[in-house]
Write a structure and sequence with these properties.
By secondary structure, the protein is an alpha/beta fold. The chain has seven helices and nine strands. Strand 8, helix 6 and strand 9 form a beta-alpha-beta unit. Helix 1 crosses helix 2 and helix 6 packs across helix 7. The structure holds 6-phosphogluconic acid.
Length: about 260
């Protein structure tokens, strides 16, 4: 998707309807991927926002997601052990993965317990082993949005924003809670993906959502999430609270609501 093309925005009445609609679209994306390529390469987001989505995905009745043909990755991880309550892997395991027939060898967690450089190297090698390339084409990347405009662990004014070679990089102590070292995908990975879908909910994100969406289609280097573009579909899934400020000031130039 070329920079300048306006991402789609979908606004739903509340977090439950947001999770329901996004779960439905994730299932559809998974079935298209398995039909076309024999497997579904899914990248999960960290943070707390995705929990209702993961809990909803855990309840999707068969046929739903073809879990035996699904490979699960993360867009970033905090450098903490998997049993640490701050672990992105731990949250997804507890809210989704332990409730679905995903193949354990197809769950590719980032080794947060390793030193960041080593963890980034290990994840890069695992991605190459699974996908055969350093720059995989993921079928769907789910991302969140921090109040400073970060996404994954790409923070404003950070050197990781300039990374164009490595798909995965270590991030020294992050400027945002939890203030730990992290490991993150870089922009090239998102650009190569078929779909990058942002999931944002709650009033506390209304201001940053408005800033990011108003900065489109060009985006801003001060707002790392605004510069994310997928090869195919870049989409924002919002609840009405998160969209409340943006919706009061929309103009034709801004992203269009599609639902
Ligand atoms: C992380 C995430 C990060 C997150 C945003 C939003 O590891 O924290 O990858 O990018 O998506 O900070 O977090 P919340 O959903 O908790 O608001």
């Amino acid at each position: 998707m070329e920079r300048g093309v306006v991402p789609e925005v979908e606004v739903f009445a509340d977090p439950a309807q947001l999770a329901e609609a996004l779960a439905r679209d994730v299932v559809a994306a998974s079935r298209q991927a398995v039909e076309e390529r024999g497997r579904f390469l899914l990248v999960l987001s960290g943070g707390s926002t995705p929990r209702p989505l993961y809990e909803r995905l855990a309840k999707v009745p068969p046929p739903g997601i073809d879990w035996p043909h699904t490979e699960v990755f993360w867009g970033d991880e905090r450098c903490v052990p998997p049993e640490d309550p701050r672990s992105n892997y731990g949250m997804a395991l507890e809210s989704l993965l332990r409730s679905v027939p995903v193949v354990p060898e197809h769950v590719h967690r980032i080794r947060g317990e390793l030193p960041p450089e080593e963890g980034a190297r290990h994840y890069t090698e695992e991605i190459r082993a699974v996908t055969g390339t350093n720059l995989p084409v993921f079928d769907l990347v789910i991302l969140g949005l921090g109040n400073d405009g970060h996404t994954a662990s790409l923070f404003p004014r950070s050197p990781e924003l300039e990374e164009e070679q490595r798909p995965v990089v270590p991030v020294p102590v992050s400027p945002d809670e939890p203030r730990v070292a992290r490991i993150t995908f870089t922009y090239p990975v998102f650009r190569a993906s078929h779909r990058v879908w942002f999931l944002v909910s709650g009033h506390d994100k209304a201001s940053i959502v408005a800033r990011v969406l108003r900065s489109l289609p060009e985006g801003s280097s001060e707002l790392p999430a605004s510069r994310v573009r997928a090869r195919g579909s870049t989409r924002w899934y919002l609840d009405s609270s998160a969209a409340s400020i943006w919706q009061t000031s929309r103009s034709g130039a801004h992203p269009r609501e599609v639902r």
